[in-house]
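Trying the structure run again after the queue cleared.
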Amino acid sequence: MKNRRNFLKSALVAGGGMALFNKNSAFAMGQNTSLPKGIIYTSENPGKWAQKIAGHSPVVTVDKNSVTITTRHSMSQKHYIVRHTLVAIDGTVLGEKTFYPSDKKAISNFKVAEGHSMLYATSFCNKHDFWVTKFKL
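Done. Tokens:
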């Protein structure tokens, strides 16, 4: 379990969180329509974390070109949301915010330039892994 977490932290989170959404990846090119099970979770595919959807799946609010990502999760020294990332369909990271256990809430706001329509919001929990919500502007 610890090695898998280290992999997620180093490969997915530290690297912008989007190695799987790189513009040359099969997923981003439309050749694969599902995310890897057991590594990335969604509200539709929560895997072993089915009881954790409400507090871990990123909730997205859109107002014109402004995107707000909220993870409804408590923040404590032992259990907290580490990071939000906003990613374009081609894998381009449009914004990212790192959180700390001392933060009261995991909320991030981003302005999105014209030309983007399909996006991904990500949320990484230090105990319950990497979550993604796909949405349209």
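The helical segments are 2-13, 53-56. Worth checking whether this holds up in the mutant runs.
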